């Protein structure tokens, strides 16, 4: 099964990336995912279920430890052939 996760961390700071946002980027870029898109207002990552779920676990734990006060995420199953 393939999954896509979309997430944001808060609080936002448009002047400088907060520590929790930097950690979130490190987590998804360091995970064994097939596709990662990191942006200022939202992030997405795709891959096999085990890789995505492992990244989500690390993302939640590490961003909260780094000062995130809210993490919003959505996980979707990707249909065969969808990208």
Topology:
Blueprint: E1 2-10, H1 19-30, E2 35-38, E3 43-48, H2 49-65, E4 70-78
Antiparallel strand pairs: 1-3, 1-4, 2-3
Key traits:
83 residues; alpha+beta; four-stranded antiparallel beta sheet; 2 helices; 4 strands; elongated
Characterize the structure shown.
The protein has helices at 19-30, 49-65, and strands spanning 2-10, 35-38, 43-48, 70-78. With 83 residues, the protein is an alpha+beta fold. Strands 2-3-1-4 form a 4-stranded antiparallel sheet, covered by helices on one side. A hairpin with a 4-residue loop joins strand 2 (35-38) and strand 3 (43-48). Helix 1 (19-30) packs antiparallel against helix 2.
Summarize the model shown.
By secondary structure, the protein is α+β, with helices and mostly antiparallel strands.
